[in-house]
Amino acid sequence: MVKRGQIRFFDIVNFLLLGFVAFASLFPFIHMASVVLSSPEHVIRNEVGLWPRGLQWDAIGAAIGDERLWIGYRNTLLYLVLGCCISMILTILGAYALSRKSLIFGKPVMLIIVFTIMFNGGMIPFYLVMKSYGLMDTIWAMVLPSAINTYNLIVMRTFFQGIPVEIEESGRIDGLSDFGLLPYIIIPLSKPVLMTVGLFYAVEIWNSFSAALLLLRDSNLFPLQLMIRNLVVVGQSGDVLETSVASGRTVVLESLKYALILLGSLPIIMVYPFIQKHFEQGALLGSVKG
User: Fold this and answer.
1) Orientation of helix 67-99 relative to helix 191-206, angle to 10°
2) Which residues of 210-226 are buried (b: 16+ CB within 10 A; e: fewer)?
3) Same domain assignment for residues 77 and 210
4) CB contact at 8 A, 38 and 54
5) Total domains present in the chain
6) pTM (2 decimals)?
7) Domain range for 29
8) 31 and 149 share a domain?
């Protein structure tokens, strides 16, 4: 009876704690959605909490009607597809090579790679290197500098090391070389970590801001996050505010800001539930071994 009581008490505390964490995580999105869907008078008087007041869709319509938002979406999707393909190919090849015990100078190379996690050249050297390579104001400025993430490389390498050697030996008996083992045996067995690392790269590219702010000058190449920043912070949303009138009502700037933030955040958040199972398994198995 004591053990049952302890377990029941733990379950209650755990449920309350996780419920609080979930509410704290969802509250900003719920509040922003309520402000976006509320009428201007309630927003100006700061009367909006968890539920919208004076339901209207003007802010959403104004945000969707801004062409710059869709330019940002277009560029971000282009960077996402191109960047994920390049990053996954390079990370898979690098992780597979580093996971082989027969690799010459494997440990020194791995130490050099781990060294980059703790130390980097800084913003100014990064800018000068990108400029010297002629990557300024190009698509490649958003793709190549972050092509390989050290943490993702280590996670995938650790996962590859955990694949039983017997499976690889059976493939070699069938005549497969390293170039055959990777596509026919290693990759099919590594779907969890591939989904996990792919999500990491997708989120990183989707949220890319500092590199774009540093390397891009052409507004037609701006990714979504930088475009939203210009619309929300710099004040370029003033023209939107003057023209976004629906049914004789003007959109409040705060509602428009929240609408832009929601439109920029929801797509990548909506992808996560579909790969949650693979994400949890891949992150766990790829982080156990050293």
Assistant:
1) 140
2) ebbeebbeeeebbbbbb
3) yes
4) yes
5) 2
6) 0.79
7) 1-56
8) no
